[in-house]
Every structure is written in C-alpha cells, then in structure tokens.
Specification:
single chain, five-stranded mixed sheet, 15 strands, globular, binds adenosine-5'-diphosphate, binds magnesium ion, mismatched DNA binding, ATP hydrolysis activity, DNA mismatch repair protein MutL, ATP-dependent DNA damage sensor activity, ATP binding
C-alpha cells in the first residue's frame, strides 16, 4: 500500500484555500472574464470595456463606469467570503445580483497578479489596491467606476497553467463569454479588444438589434419575437425559424433572470417545441430570457452558476414548451402557407 506521510490535522493557509477555490471558480481565462463582467453589471455599469492579451492568459483588464468601490472597502473586495450583495440566508434565497459568493476576486487574486482601481462618484480621485487584501491602498487616477486588471494567470500554479489551450482557443472562450453577456444586456455598451485590436463593439440598443449583431443576419431575417407571461413566469426574446437552424448548437442562448444558463430541462423544453418543424439533426437558434421570482429558482447549485434548479421544474418546462410552440405554430400557419386546423 502507498505510504502517505502522517501529519497532524492543521488549518490550511488562507492563500492555499483561495487557490483550491480558484480551481472551481477560475477554470480558465474565460471564467475570469465572466466573473469580472458580472461584477461590472452588478455595479450598475452602462459601459464596459474588455481588454485581453494573449487569450486572456497574459492580461484581462475590464473597466466599467459603475458605482465603484470606496477606498476603505478595497481590501474587502479582495478578501475571501466578503460581499456587498447578500447578508443573510433570506438574501441568498432571493438573490437578484449575478454574484453573491464573495469569492471570485479573492480566488483570482490567488492565482494571478491583480490590481483593482476604483473611484466612487463622490470621491475626489481613484484608489487602487495591488495583489491581495493585504495590499496597500494607494491614490490613483481615473474616471468613476472600476478597473480590474488581471495579469499572468496561474503564474504561481504551473500545474494549472499547463491545462490551458492555445491562445486562440482561450481567446475564443473569452469572446464567447462576452457575447453571451452582451446579449443579455443590450442596455449596456460593450467593447472587446484582443492584443490591442478592437474586435467587437456593441452600443446600447434593443435586443432585436443586439441579437442581430451577435447572431448574424441569418438569424435576424428568420426569427419570431415572443413575449408570454403566466403567473410570475415571463419568457421573452426571439426564436429562430427553422431556416435559421444550424448543424451545431452554437446559436442557443437561454437566460434565467439575466444569467446565461445551459440547463437540460430548458434545452429539452425548447427542443420539444421545435419537434414538429425541425429535423432531428438540426439545432434551433434562439435568444430567450426567462424571468421569474428569484425565490422560485436556486442559482446556488454550482460555483460558475451555469446550472440552475427550479422549485417547480414541471411547470417551468410546460410554460417554456408551450410559449415557444405557440410562437412557432403561428408562423407555420402563415409564413409557410399551410392551412390552420
Ligand atoms: P461577489 O460578486 O460574489 O460579491 P466578488 O469577489 O466578485 O464577490 O466581489 C467582491 C465585492 O467587490 C463585491 O461584492 C462588490 O462589492 C465589489 N466589487 C467587485 N467588482 C466590482 C466592480 N466592478 N464595481 C463595483 N464593486 C465591485
Ligand atoms: Mg462577483
């Protein structure tokens, strides 16, 4: 049998705890982009700039024009399990912000070189903190809002660094995260640059325009607007017509209370709605947002929160299925010339 050294039980050092958590929260550069974008949105920003270098591994710098972090709060922003978003179990069960765990910045700061520069509306100038919650807070410059600058991801955890893919692959994942979030928030402007080159820029607009911009003309020209409510459930957005379907499932964007999710139940409900109009080997394209009372959905299932759990999954499935099916049925009766029964 392998001999493991026998050691007394001891509490792990803070830095190591954060590095272990970082394994879940910060899988790859795109996960950092997601966390920083969510923080920017939670701060009420209407303008967000994402600058990436070398697929995000060398640098991820995200600037927002949101509410900012006060000078005396900067160390707390980088401290583990410190958050301004929830304070109680009741808050957790009704969470309305994208973040709430209070561990993203601490985790990121444990595996990369982080500088947070921030200025609140009433401050005379910006302040910055470098490295960790133990870093000193020093005067800085800049407009109201926050910049989180993350450099040399995994520089101190070489084993993790080895799992990173090529610059192009990592960049692709980062860009996908920006697109997902930009689609959810047409009321916010975004810009994305890579290695000093502006790649995308989306001005504040409507979902109709933003989704045309992000999913392309094929989608814009063959989609149905839908907006249905039942009780506290509302489903709205655009369902692509069969002509906008794809050979891959890369045109599917589903949001629950503003959060991009990839949820089996929801994918299935939409798939079923398309059953009569779409060949089994084609994937529908859609941008659909489901809004419901936050207490009816548990977003605390996974650290990256891509999966959710509904309190009443049956009725959510039914609602989504019928809403999409009804929208599609209208067009098959009109656009395709078939006679309604
Ligand atoms: P969480 O988002 O779960 O609260 P984070 O570690 O992501 O945890 O952030 C910690 C805290 O730092 C947030 O609760 C928020 O108060 C503050 N913060 C982080 N990013 C920003 C930002 N871009 N603008 C304003 N405040 C921010
Ligand atoms: Mg956060």
């Amino acid at each position: 049998a392998p001999i493991t050294p026998h050691r007394p039980i001891q509490a792990l050092p803070d830095q190591l705890i954060s590095q272990i958590a970082a394994g879940e929260v910060v899988e790859r550069p795109s996960a950092v982009v997601k966390e920083l974008l969510e923080n920017a949105l939670d701060s009420g920003a209407t303008q967000i700039t994402v600058r990436l270098e070398e697929g995000g591994v060398k640098r991820i710098a995200i600037t927002d024009n949101g509410r900012g972090i006060a000078q005396d709060q900067l160390p707390l922003a980088l401290a583990r399990h410190a958050t301004s978003k929830i304070a109680s179990l009741h808050d957790l069960e009704n969470v309305g912000t994208l973040g709430f765990r209070g561990e993203a910045l601490a985790s990121i700061a444990s595996v990369a070189a982080v500088t947070v520069t921030s200025r609140t509306a009433d401050a005379a100038h910006a302040w910055e903190i470098v490295g960790s919650h133990n870093g000193t807070v020093a005067p800085s410059s800049g407009a109201p809002g926050t910049t989180v600058d993350v450099q040399d991801l995994y520089f101190n955890t070489p084993a993790r660094r080895k799992f990173l893919k090529s610059e192009q692959t990592e960049y692709g994942h980062c860009a996908e995260v920006v697109r997902r979030i930009a689609l959810a928030r047409p009321d916010v402007s975004f810009s994305l640059s890579h290695n000093g080159r502006t790649i995308d820029q989306w001005n504040i607009s409507e979902l109709a325009r933003r989704s045309a911009h992000i999913l392309g003309n094929d989608f814009a020209e063959a989609r149905l607007a839908l907006d249905e409510s039942a009780g506290s459930l509302r489903l709205h957005g655009f369902a692509g017509l069969p002509t906008a379907s794809k050979a891959r499932a890369d045109g599917q964007f589903f949001y629950v209370n503003g959060r991009f999710v990839r949820d089996k139940l929801l994918v299935h409900a939409v798939r079923m709605a398309y059953q009569d109009v779409l060949h089994g080997d084609r994937f529908p394209s859609y941008v659909l947002a489901l809004d419901l009372d936050p207490s009816l959905v548990d977003v605390n299932v996974h650290p990256s929160k891509i999966e959710v759990r509904f309190r009443d999954s049956r009725s959510v499935h039914q609602f989504v299925f019928h809403a999409v099916q009804r929208a599609l049925a209208q067009t098959s009766a009109t656009a395709f010339g078939s006679v309604p029964a």
